[in-house]
Amino acid sequence: MLYFCSKMKADDTEGLSKQYYDDPCFFVDIYNVGRGFIRCANENNNRPHITSTLELKMWRILEENLIPINPAGIFYNSESYLIQWTFEYDVYSELKIGQVFFYWRGSTAKKGLSPLPENFDNDTSVVVRLVQWSEPAVFFHIFPKPIVVLDAKFDCFNPDSPHLFLIRGEQQNELHLIEVPFLKKNFRSRGVFLVVIPSKSSIFRWKGSKIAAELELTVKMLNFRDILMDYVKSWSNFQVLEVEEGDSSYFFEGDDSEYFHVKVDCNFSPKLYYLSTITGEFSAVEVEYPLRKENSVAAFPFLQSHLSTSDETGLFLLDNNHEIWVVLDASKPSHFEDLSKLGMETATNYAQLREKSLGETVPVRLVKSDTDLIDFTNIFPYWS
Question: Are 153 and 79 in contact (CB under 8 A)?
Fold first, then answer.
C-alpha cells in the first residue's frame, strides 16, 4: 500500500485538507503498469500497460500441495491460494511477456508454506504476497469474471444456508463479492449487497439509500446470478429480485442487531491519517485505498484492521466529511495522554477547515478502536 507523509504541527493542518492523489501502481520488471489494462478511449495508451492475459492458473494451498481450482476466481477466506498469471504487456510500443505469481491469504487463514509449481522460473517470474482486502487494482482485472470470497473453509461451505455478500469496488472491472456474516448489522446504507436465500430460491440485490450514483450504474451492468452460479452450481436457477433499504427485516427473523441508517448525502470518500511522533516530529501519514480512482467516490476504502499498528503510538484521524474521528488503538497502553491531546487539537483545527468548505459545523469525536458505536463502525465495510 502506498503512503503520503507530511510533517506537521498540531496547528498545521492545511496540508491535510488539500486534495492529493496518486494513481495506483503495479510494477512489472521496472515498468509501472498502474491498474494494468487500458480500457477507455481517453486513457493514456503511451504509458506501459497490459495488453492481454495469455494464461491464468489457480491453486489452493494445502500444506505442501497445490490443488488446482477451476474456474479461477473462487476464494475461501480461511484458505490460501497461488495464482499464476502470464500476460503480454506494452512498453512504449514494444511487446513483452511477463509472469506474476500471487500468493493470496484469506483474512482468517493461518500463515503456512508457500509451495511453487514445477515450472517456476527464478529469473523471470515475480512473486507478490497479498492478504485479503489489500489486493492491488490490477489483481481484479486478471480474472474473466468478478471474484467471489466465501466466508468459510473449503470443505465447510453450506450452499443451502443463507448468505450475505458485500459488493466491493467502484470500477466495473474491479467489482468483487466479499461474504460477510449473515447478520442485519452488516448492512450499510452506502453499500450494495447480495442476499442469497436458498429456501426461497432467490438472490436479492439490496441497495442502500445513500450509495454513489456511479456505483449504482456500475452494479446494474453486471449479472451477479451468472457470476455466483459459476462457483455455486445449486444457485443457478435462483430468481434475482431488487430490494431497497428498509425492506430487509424479513431476512433476519429474530436478529436484533442493527446498522446505522445514514441520513446525509454521501458524495465523498472517507480519508484516514495515521498520527505519530515516532520520527521525533509530529507527522500524519495518509493511508491510501488500493482501488482509488481520481474523482470516484469510495464508500468503504478502509478496514477495521487499519486502526491497529505495530509501533507504540496507535493514533488515527478519520475524516468522514461531516464528522471527524480521533481513534485510539485499543491494544496500546493508555499512557499517551499528551499525544491524544495533540491528536484532538489537530482534529479540531482540521475540522475548522472542513467547516469553511462545507458551511456547517463538523464535530470531532474521540473513540477507541474497539468501540461498538454503530455510527462509527458503519464507516467500515465490515466490523467484527
Answer: yes
Task: Annotate 126-153 with b (16+ C-beta within 10 A) or e (fewer).
Answer: eebebebbbbbbbbbbbbebbbbbbbbe
Confidence of residue 331 (pLDDT cuts 50, 70, 90): confident
* Range list of H helices, the chain: 14-17, 137-141, 213-220, 224-231, 337-358, 374-377
How far from 338 is each of 11, 276, 344, 359, 367, CA to CA, in Å? 15, 12, 10, 31, 16
What pTM, to 2 d.p., does this model score? 0.90
State pLDDT tens for residues 131-177: 999 999 999 999 999 999 999 999 999 999 999 999 999 998 999 99
Q: Which domains does the chain have, with CATH numbers?
A: 3-22+268-377 (3.40.20.10), 145-263 (3.40.20.10)
Sorted by sequence, the CB contacts under 8 Å of residue 219 that are 6+ apart come out as 167, 175, 192, 205
The predicted pLDDT at position 41 comes to: 46
Q: Rounded distance, CA 376 to CA 338, Å?
A: 24
For residue 218, what are the contacts with CB-CB under 8 A and spacing of at least 6?
A: 170, 171, 172, 175
Q: What pLDDT does residue 325 have?
A: 96
Q: Is 364 exposed, middle or buried (0-12, 13-18, 19+ CB in 10 A)?
A: buried
117, 66 contact by CB (below 8 A): yes
Q: Helix or strand or coil: residue 55?
A: strand
Euclidean distance between CA atoms 305 and 383, whole angstroms: 9
- Say if CB 326 and CB 366 are below 8 A apart: yes
- Which residues have CB under 8 Å from 171's CB, separation 6+? 137, 218, 291, 293, 296
**For residue 38, what pLDDT band results from cuts at 50, 70 and 90?**
low
